[in-house]
Amino acid sequence: MRVLTAFLAAVLMLGSLPLWWWLQQRQQGVEAVPASPTATIDQTLDTTSATTPAVADQPPTEAPAAVPDPTPSVVAEEPIRPAKPVPELVTGPDPGRSPLADRLNAPDGTIELDLAIVHKVLTNYLLEFGALPVGANREITAQLSGRNTRRHAPLPPDLPAISQGGELLDRWGTPFFFHALSAREMEVRSAGPDRELYTADDALWTPSE
Length: 209
What we know:
By secondary structure, this protein is mainly alpha-helical. It has a domain at about 100-205: Glycoprotein, Type 4 Pilin (2-Layer Sandwich). The protein is built from four helices and three strands. The protein has helices at about 1-30, 35-50, 110-130, 135-145; strands at about 175-180, 185-190, 205. Strand 1 (about 175-180) and strand 2 (about 185-190) form a beta hairpin. The protein is rod-shaped and about 200 Å long.
């Protein structure tokens, strides 16, 4: 009886060996199965998150400071222009009076001398202003008697040879006739004793004389 029991126990033991071996192999196979792709990706993301700081946590990047231009800026300057000269206002009883004025139409003089005096006054005006006075007798006399940019009056307004109408008269009381040949040359004519222009007794001063 004991022998039979021992025999049965040995058979059971030997029969369980294949089952035990199969269970061991299965257990090892389960441990060797790799994790699912999803799990691997999740683990990778977790690892990356742990090692890479979040973008929001990074300090803001500052813009580089502007580099100053080493070339100095050139500012266009207005050219310096001299101030326009202001006409000089000469004060006094007879500003710029010509010493020839009192000799015009003098009783002891002649018409030729009178014409030479008028021509000399005109020449001095030309040298001072760069051009002769323009216009008819009245306009020329006004410029010679102070109505100019410098207020010079080589012929004073109260000169006896100037009429109440502002014309320069010859020794017979007839206005001189001024004929401008150019801006720098002028003829001066007197009507003479008959007081009529362009007659035989006219007296004429021309630049060629």
